[in-house]
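User: Hey, my collaborator sent me this sequence without any context and asked if I could get a structure. I don't really work with proteins. Can you help?
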Amino acid sequence: MTASSERFDLIVVGLGAMGAAVAHHATALGLRVLGIDRHDPPHHLGSTTAETRITRLAVGEGPQYLPFVARSHEIWRDLEDRTGTSLLHQCGGYIITEQTPVAGQRWHDFVTETDRIAKTGGIDFEVFEQTADTGNRPGLDRLRGLAGKRIGFERSAGLVMAERAVAIQLQLAEAAGAVLRRTEPVTAVTPNDREVSVTTDAGTYRADQVVVAAGPWLGDLTDEPDRSRLTVTRQVVYWFEVDDPAAFGTDRFPFVMWVGDTDADYLGVFPIPPGGTPALKVLGEQFAATTHPEDVERTVSDAEIRDFYDRHVGPKLACAGRTCLTASVCLYTNTPDDHFLIDTAPTSDRVLLMSPCSGHGFKHSAALGEAVAQRLATGDSTLDLTPFERARFGT
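Assistant: No problem. I've predicted the 3D structure and written it out in structure-token form, which is a compact way to encode the shape of the chain:
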């Protein structure tokens, strides 16, 4: 396939969570959009994979995120109404920390921070200490080792069907006139005073503006100092067999974010959505060893599976067996302070870099895409994007 001679208003490089949302909203605003991805999204080689993502209105990472996740919930519901496809399951969610968290750790006292933001935003968030009586709190009887833990519960939290959401937004963008090029790696993004050229192995495309939302490949398409600020890490997601999958469905079991004293202690537990893999999705997080999407080890070894079960699944989850039905690798892209980078490139105002930090980016993606599309189409956005500019890093 050769590159089109047509000039576009906007080219979106990368069609995962963020790129798909930008393409969808920009097309709806009347821009002539070209979207390009090196694979065939939604795919399993980047960050938007593994079926589901957690969403929570009370975002302990900072109050600047709350408007984006709230607006994203509205967008998910609108997409459901328009397409008849289920995307958002508000099953509730638990955050679990130690009674006295270790200061200076990534998560620290995350229940307290989440509670503070919940109060500011008027979000129903209950904080309690676990006793032998689980009361009417769903799913706690499926967890072990809760004695002495501090627990927060948000009823409005839940899961988003991540891959499904990407697919729907791309379908709507294409139906509204966007041109999508799949399995076409971008090799260069070159701006000048008049336009931006985007080069692929098929040729060169031109547009007034370009959004680079390439996830773990973003560093290959950016200049310093941003390139050095981005790190890519390998994360592993597991699906372990449970005795009764129905007991872990989104109608009966909230998600769990179990925060320990170190990154290695973290455990995320996801309920089983309708039509999802009939096993309990669980994951940890690691930020020490970096990688590159073309070099990362994508095979999950038996030793990794055994180790994760012994450290997390067996001690913390009742009724989960040792059988791992499947496991996959996901890639996180992060900045030094773990907050998003959404800003024009240092070399050109015509190029916008969009690297929401993996691990807490998807829940905001629909609204971030809308805000970026508004900014590009009109010069302004309904929601404030300035907290994510690089100026916070200093010189």
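In plain terms: The chain has a mean pLDDT of 94. You can pass these tokens on to your collaborator as they are.
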